[in-house]
Fold this protein.
Amino acid sequence: MNSTQEKQQAGESRYASEVSVVVSGCEKDDARMVFDVLRAAFTTDRASVDVPHDVIGKRPTAWVVTVDVTEARVVSGPVRIGAPVTVDAQGGYWAVDRLRESLAGAFAVRVVGTVSGDQEEEVRLRLENK
């Protein structure tokens, strides 16, 4: 195998383990709790000081993070949120399942919608207190 093929396979493997997560339909403090759980369980592209904040005006707000589910860590237990949170997760089937299973360690997780593709899926989750 040549180096070009190896680089391509390494890039494909990295993307297969990444999940794009959009948190919406909640207050900024609840979004922060979800991000804290994701950061505790996986490597993300959001630093701990990069916290959700309110947007001025009456527009819907969504917060986005990319999560690498390659190396999962144990989530310590249930986390309290003020109200249910909507999470849209998009990525490979294995990666999205791994993300959902990890969130289930902290929240009651309900799948409320799915869109399946050839190699990826998008899942809408509803997170509530356990």
